[in-house]
């Protein structure tokens, strides 16, 4: 299965699940229109509670990464509202960068990390359409 839950991690299972789905979208392993396993199926396969999977799917729906379809289930459907998401991203980055700043991580190191990470997504495409 393409989802792996680290049962020893302090990170909530639904967060692990949602992060792995987002990573797969970024790496173009999941594309717009692809369906995810049903809540019950994924819960059974991964070995977690159905409510946990449901929470991850609901969160992803709220963030605009998927939609729930009666016939097809959870479907990758990326909301393209850049302006709203850019503000959310700014708030999250502000906290991450503050943590790095406190640990004396330099601007250059952050830029290098960002470049390395972006190279992993979408086969290293420089810009998105």
Automatic annotation (TrEMBL):
Domain HTH gntR-type residue range list: 11-79
Signal peptide: none
An annotated Gene Ontology molecular function: DNA binding
Taxonomic superkingdom: Bacteria
Keywords: DNA-binding, Transcription, Transcription regulation
Family matches, as InterPro entries: Tscrpt_reg_HTH_GntR, WH-like_DNA-bd_sf, WH_DNA-bd_sf
UniProt-recorded name of the protein: GntR family transcriptional regulator
Source species of the chain: Suipraeoptans intestinalis
Lineage of the organism: Bacteria, Bacillati, Bacillota, Clostridia, Lachnospirales
